[in-house]
Amino acid sequence: MSTPDAEAAAPVNVHPAQNPTDGPVHEWFSLSYSNYLVLHRTLMQSMPTDWQYRLRACLEELETAFAHIEQPEAFKVEAATVHEILELTTTQKTLLGITEDRFRGTTPPKGLTDDELREWEAQHEDPDGPVYHQDGSELEPTHRVLVPAGDPIPHYQRGRTYIAPRLPATTPS
To answer: Rounded to an integer, what distance in angstroms lies between the CA atom of residue 159 and that of residue 42?
Structure first.
C-alpha cells in the first residue's frame, strides 16, 4: 500500500512508452548501435554543482536499482576515430588485427622466382578485390572500425582540471 509521501517521491512518467525499453534513453541514443554511454570526468566535474548533485543522484539510483545484476569488474575505454577498412594504412590494419586476403585463401608454392610469383599472383588474385578478416570474421571493405587515438579532453588531474562550460543563459524567476 502506498503512502502520500511515497507517491509524492515517485518519479512522474510524463510520456509513457509502449515498451519500457522504448523511452527517452532509447531515443537519446537514436539509431546508433552504442551499448554504453561514456562521459568524461573532466567535463562532468566542470559542470555547476547543482547539475553534479542531480547526476550523482541519478547514478546512485541506477546503481541501487540494478545491484542484483552481476556487473563487469572493469571496462577498457579509449578514444578512437572511425575509419572504413579501405582508408586504413598497413600499420593501422596490423594494429587492429585486420588481414587482407587477395588470393581467396590460397598461398603461392614455395621456391617461385620473382617472375613466377608475379604470374601466380596475377592468376590467383581475387578480381573483386581483397577480402578482409578480423578475429576470424570476414569484413567488407566499407566496414567501419575504430582506430585508437589521443583524447582531446584533458585528464581530470585529481579534480584540478576545469573547463568552463557554455551553458544557456537562464532568466531569474
So the answer is: 7
